[in-house]
Design a protein that fits this description.
Distance between the termini: 33 Å
Shape: globular
Number of domains: 1
Number of helices: 4
Low-confidence stretches: none
Number of strands: 11
Helix content: 10-25%
Largest sheet: 6 strands, mixed
CATH topology: Sulfite Oxidase, Chain A, domain 2
CATH superfamily: Oxidoreductase, molybdopterin-binding domain
Mean pLDDT: 93
Order of helices and strands: HEEEHEEHEEHEEEE
Structural class: mainly beta
Strand content: 25-35%
Length: 205
């Protein structure tokens, strides 16, 4: 069966196996956390020279920027021209100072949820920790107060309810990765499932 037809300029932005949707679908595993700013903090740790912990207000004061980017979910939907507001990952990395042996980043979220990506993938200039979308604060079901945004990877890598980033030397598969999802999750390569991984999947793409 043929999929929907899009204008050429739009079709060029939609990876294989994806379709545009209206609105922003909500997908999650588990309940939505309750946010208490008085006890909430965000940690950058692991193989870095200067680990640090900041409050929500301190994080939001760290040179916020805006990014416009598309989002592609592994379940097959895509949305274009999302407007994100937050702090670039590079800003956090520059403050922390990754050690030479740091090659991967583990995202830590509420309820013990984790995900993983290579440091190389995280250093893309459109990767950020975001608290805003479309000019408004994130809705709780979309990750408020903070989520990761990694536009060039399937959306499960853009983990919601983010609480920290840990720099490590070796790949540590996260919640969905140990359940059969791909380490690198590049939508243009349709890297959806772990059985697609090659022998070099444990190295940086």
């Amino acid at each position: 069966m043929l999929g929907p037809r899009y204008p050429d300029d739009v079709a060029a932005r939609i990876p294989p196996g994806q379709r545009l949707v209206k609105g922003w679908p909500v997908l999650q595993y588990g309940p939505i956390p309750r946010f208490d700013e008085s006890t909430w903090d965000f940690k950058v740790s692991g193989l870095v020279d200067s680990p640090f912990t900041v409050t929500y207000s301190e994080l939001k004061a760290m040179g916020p920027q805006r990014v416009q980017a598309d989002m592609h979910c592994v379940t097959g939907w895509s949305t274009l021209d999302n407007q994100w507001e937050g702090v670039p990952f590079r800003t956090l990395a520059e403050r922390a100072g990754p050690k030479p042996e740091a090659a991967w980043v583990i995202t830590h979220c509420d309820y013990g949820y984790t995900s993983n990506l290579s440091l190389g993938a995280m250093m893309d200039d459109d990767v950020m920790v975001a608290w805003g979308h479309g000019g408004e604060p994130l809705a709780p079901e979309h990750g408020y107060p903070l989520r990761l945004v990694v536009p060039k990877r399937y959306a499960w890598k853009s983990a919601k309810w983010l609480r920290g980033l840990e720099f490590v030397a070796r790949n540590e598969r996260g919640f969905w990765e140990v359940r059969g999802y791909h380490t690198h999750a590049d939508p243009w390569r349709e890297e959806r499932y772990s059985y697609q991984e090659t022998k070099d999947a444990e190295s940086e793409p």
